[in-house]
Specification:
Length: 290
């Protein structure tokens, strides 16, 4: 597409040395990198930034950006058998093609595409399905993320929108909406639950809940509604202090400032798409007053 013909409020920029769209409208400001079709910043008008981005995040081909909304596909982590690399799949490590940019009132709608050959070029030895991906990002007073898998052949894949949400302090943050759900606790390795009350954080937390719907994050200063469609699981993650100290792209004290809430179809709840069909995994984030 012609990046010189963009609607008002959208500019093609170089951000951290990589091509990106900068959005500035009465509804929000935002940054979306072509690398990984990665939403790296979104700040609704009159609000504090909603997404967390590590100040030590790396912006380079073949490297995942720490923060914002990484796209995990076609596997999650090391994959269902634990033998795949790179972690969370190749699609967040390569540049997606910008297909369309539209202005709809105060909303900006960006559409990106990724073909299988481009994705395979990142990890040639890893199994990548015969699918095309399209990703529609709508930026306004809400954030709407829609990843669509277009199956050219039968596909059985994992996918997740691995959203880093900024919080005042994870130690005083809670997530409502997962009450009663069972979950895989990846810290202990146990299948456990049901979740009793809101999710609270007192240590490394890495849980794959058998639930997908609307949850509410409350950090005392702000309440965010996170709604999922097309998923089977909700992943909740905070590395806490010890794991954060081992991460080279995250300041040692940064673990208090984010929680990941991920709209996911992973593990025993994958996305199965027959040839010729498509499936959309969608996450919407709506800040509301506490
Ligand atoms: O979604 C949680 C998780 O799977 C954690 O286990 C942790 O590995 C996190 O993702 C970050 O993964 P990354 O590959 O981005 O460092």
């Amino acid at each position: 597409m012609d990046l010189t013909q963009l609607p008002a409020g959208v500019t093609a920029v170089a951000d951290h040395g990589l091509p990106a769209f900068a959005v500035d409208t009465p509804a929000c400001t935002a940054t979306v990198h072509l690398h990984g079709a990665h939403v790296t910043a979104w700040t609704p008008e009159g609000s504090a930034p909603v997404l967390y981005l590590s100040p030590e995040a790396r912006f380079s081909p073949g490297t995942a950006i720490r923060g914002g909304v990484p796209i995990c596909f076609p596997w999650f982590g090391p994959g269902r058998d634990g033998d795949l690399s790179p972690s969370h799949g190749p699609v967040r490590l390569t540049e997606w093609e910008p297909l369309d940019v539209q202005r709809d009132g105060d909303d900006v709608r960006l559409t990106f595409g990724l073909t299988a050959p481009v994705a395979r070029s990142i990890a040639p030895d890893a199994p990548y399905p015969a699918v095309g991906l399209s990703y529609v990002v709508t930026l306004g007073r809400e954030l709407d993320l829609a990843l669509t898998i277009h199956a050219l052949a039968d596909a059985d894949v994992e996918a997740a929108l691995h959203t880093y949400l900024a919080v005042e302090d994870v130690r005083t943050t809670s997530i409502a909406g997962l009450e009663g759900a069972s979950y895989l606790d990846k810290v202990t390795g146990d299948e456990t639950g049901p979740q009793e009350g809101a999710v609270r954080f007192a240590g490394e937390t890495d849980r794959v809940y058998d639930a997908s719907g609307t949850v509410a994050l409350d950090d005392g200063a702000r309440r965010l509604e996170v709604s999922s469609e097309g998923g089977t699981k909700t992943v909740v993650w905070n590395p806490w202090s010890e794991k954060a100290a081992s991460m080279g792209d995250l300041p040692d004290d940064a673990w208090t400032r984010f929680v990941c809430i991920e709209t996911a179809a992973v593990h025993d709840g994958p996305i199965v798409v027959p040839a010729g069909a498509q499936h959309t995994l969608r996450q919407r984030i709506n800040p509301t007053a506490v």
